[in-house]
Amino acid sequence: MGTPEGGGPLRSDERQEASGQMETTSRVGAQTPAGEGEQPLASARRAVDGYLLASFPWYGLDEAFTGPRWLMQVGTSADGAVEHGSVGHGDEPSVRSDSTEDTERFAVVVTVAANPSRRSADGTGLLEATSVSSAAWLAGVGLLSFTWPGQMDHTLRDDWLDQQTETAWVLADDLGGPDWSSLSLPVDGVPTPFHYRESEFGWVLAGSTQQGVHLGAYGRGMSAYGLAFSAIRDIEAYA
């Protein structure tokens, strides 16, 4: 997975390629409907299996959050290794438009494996190391996936998403810039620094843990300032 940190922002064609790779290698979680004739239990089992293949711990909100929890999706590399994934808390978000009342309260936590620079699966090149910027970009794009300018023609949505995705790359490459502020939140009970920003669509934050993973998060309707994160003991409880 290409990341914007370490070598500067990727070119537009590189961003599109990286984005396409993540889309084609994602394993959809709880939001994917069961196939025809498939029992819901079997669908949930299939969804959680992707998370169980990860070699790193998953993170979510700590036990102080008592609302619904649900799986989203994992992202894999070309050789099938799980590299990142998301879990949700609160209301399962729908696409927000300017014409609908914004009553949803949700927070999504993104876990990204901390990988060094490494060779691609076919051995022909190097994959950039993952970083806090990786988590910031994934969280920023995740928030965009539930955002829809209500007055925009559907034919313009792709152009809008391309523009906003490019902005997310630029912001993730400049975590020390004026668009970000500092925020300290508990991770496994330890105060941990995060980069934080707000937009008209919601909020995004990103940081790292002592367990060798990077964390991103995004949400709406729930204050980021009151969140705390912890390693998930039983990912199947989210299924």
From TrEMBL:
Biased composition (Basic and acidic residues): 89-102
Organism: Streptomyces minutiscleroticus
Comp. bias (Polar residues): 18-29
Superkingdom in the source lineage: Bacteria
Annotated stretches, region: Disordered: 1-42, 81-102
UniProt-recorded name of the protein: Uncharacterized protein
